[in-house]
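Notebook, student rotation project (T.W.).
Task set for the rotation: take a protein with a known small-molecule partner, predict the structure of the complex, and write up what can be learned from the model alone. Partner molecule chosen: zinc ion. Sequence and SMILES entered below by T.W., checked by me.
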Amino acid sequence: MEAEYDSLSVEFTIACDWFTRNGGSDNFSWPELNGYWAGGNEGTHNPWGYITSGIPGMLETLRATALADTFLNINLLPLSSGYRCPVGNTNVGSSAPTRSRHMAGRAIDISTRQLWESLSESEWRARYNALRDLASLVGFDYEGLTFDTYGDHHLHISIE
Ligand SMILES: [Zn+2]
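Predicted structure of the complex:
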């Protein structure tokens, strides 16, 4: 793994012994945190991955807050990405190929499409913004990204 990070000029230093084969929390399984994205590491690395220890607890807090929010009106918080190895990060066409926090186990994508695709774009945008604000309150950073950053309007949240 260290060689993969070196060969793709990733800006993080990572240690092999950070990687684990299990993790997660009550509502977010290890595969969901480590494998729910296309073209990634499942062939070569899965189930090995790395999620910074604070993330699962913060996600649980965000989930509880979001599910209680009547404006959001959701009954799940669906993730579309979590940890990505450097090859996987390249495969998904990351806009930050050498410094994406996904490769440091510090970023999560939430599929707002799965939640609000059936709404009008303005209604979808309003809920995206409301969920983003809740994530900020929990302590997540959204790195200045907006509803318009990605075509599928996923919400990228991370910690430094
Ligand atoms: Zn992301």
